[in-house]
Amino acid sequence: MRTVNMAFLLNKTAISALRLRSQKSASSIILPRRGFHDELGARKKTFSADDPELKRLEAEMNNAFRRLRGLEVLAVALLAGSCYGTYYVTVETLKGLAEAMREEGRIEKSD
User: Fold this and answer.
1) What is the pTM of this model?
2) What is the pLDDT of residues 12-61, one digit of tens each?
3) Which InterPro entries match (predicted)?
């Protein structure tokens, strides 16, 4: 079987990438893709201007995300507490059963 050298493949792709890059830079010097302009248009100026309503909306969204994160933490704490409560009740029940069985064994031995 013939094995392929990974360095050869890497070198070959690197050379082809450089070749493509040089072709792009040569053509981009001749014909730029976008025209140059000095000033923004009226529409772009309005979009780039600070909007107080947008800032208020962003602040409200940040507060909502903080509240949601707090609720998630509360839900995890509640779940952990309920799991611990279930564990505690189960362990105490088993302890009570074990104690009752020991007591029953003592009664049988004494008879």
Assistant:
1) 0.44
2) 565 666 565 555 554 555 555 666 666 777 888 777 778 888 889 999 99
3) SDH7
